[in-house]
Amino acid sequence: MKAAQEVRGQLDGIFAWLKEKIDGVLVVKAHGREQDEMAGFAAQIGAAHRPRLQVGLLGAALSNLSAAAACIGTALVFAAGALEAIHGRMTPGAVVSAVAMSALLFGPIGRLLDLAAVFQQAAASMDRLREILEQEPDVIEPANPVPLERACGRVEFDRVGFGYYPGQPVVWDVRLRVEPGMKIALVGPTGCGKSTLLHLLQRFYDPIWEEIRLDGIPLPRLALADLRRQIGLVPQEPVLFQASLANNIR
Predict the structure, then answer these.
(1) What does the CA dihedral 143, 148, 152, 153 come to, rounded to 10 degrees?
(2) pTM score
(3) Is 77 strand, coil or helix?
(4) Are residue 175 and residue 123 in the same domain, yes or no?
(5) Do 119 and 220 reside in the same domain of the chain?
(6) How far apart are CA 22 and CA 29, in angstroms?
(7) Which pLDDT tens digit goes with each residue over 17-64?
(8) How far apart are CA 181 and CA 152, in angstroms?
(9) What is the pLDDT of residues 76-99, one digit of tens each?
(10) Can you tell me the distance from the alpha carbon of 132 to that of 181, in angstroms, rounded to the nearest whole number?
(11) Residue 150, class by beta-carbon neighbours within 10 Å (0-12 exposed, 13-18 middle, 19+ buried)?
(12) Residue 181 domain boundaries
């Protein structure tokens, strides 16, 4: 079981690594890192090989054990039946019937042993799935949200601070008041926190310090669906889904 869980965890890591590199393939090519990335991928495959080999050997051993059990069991029944027939206690037809019945019996038993390896892999996958399902979200829905049908649009950042990692703030002491109808431009170099402020406004994250209010209501008191329904966001890197252009625009 432990080996199967280790294999599943390493495969998840490999697939995540592959997705990251495929998404950033232009950056990899632009910096000439193809050989380095191939070496890193080979290292990950090598690390996953040993536990996967253990799981494969266990599955092969169980499969061979089931086949051996079926063969030995059938042979024992045949030998016992032949001995009984020699002493006149069974007829040849009864011996053949007993051997046929034993074959029908040992076949399902062998398949049960084969299923043991499959069960181990399934159990490992379920453990990984349970880890994901039991994760607590960083942003919690309010128990009794304030109803919000249509916002007027007054946004207030009250000395807001936030960082993705402890001790590394991205924005801090942000004081901003946007009245309905105002047009605001946030300018600055890459990484200064412009996108972070929009993410905070939509509650993808919550501020570490102080709060943001919409129409005077702190964002954590609003239902996420009600809040995000008020805001239209056009990301700088648009994502196109497998649908028509019209549906993507909608």
Answers:
(1) 40
(2) 0.55
(3) helix
(4) no
(5) no
(6) 11
(7) 778 878 777 777 777 778 888 888 888 777 777 767 776 777 677 777
(8) 9
(9) 888 888 887 888 887 888 877 877
(10) 42
(11) exposed
(12) 155-249
